[in-house]
Amino acid sequence: xxxxxxxxxxxxxxxxxxxxxxxxxxxxxxxxxxxxxxxxxxxxxxxxxxxxxxxxxxxxxxxxxxxxxxxxx
Length: 73
Prior knowledge:
- This protein has a single domain (about 1-70), classed as Conserved Hypothetical Protein Mth637, Chain: A, CATH 3.30.1200.
- It has one helix at about 35-50; strands spanning about 1-10, 15-20, 20-25, 55-60, 65-70.
- It has a five-stranded mixed sheet with strand order 2-3-1-5-4, with helices on one face.
- It is built from one helix and five strands; from the N terminus they run E-E-E-H-E-E.
- The N and C termini lie close together (about 10 Å).
């Protein structure tokens, strides 16, 4: 399953909101050196109750709009 995620780095709150089939990930980390991507990955893993290794970034490593693949084992 693939999902669209819109990252909101440097947010005061850490939360995940779903609007019109797009996940909005509000995270604390700045968008540098993969820190934000990693925090989004952890947030999604917590939401889906899966290990972090089951969430893979497919597209959008350097952009706010990202595509993640969820691998259910």
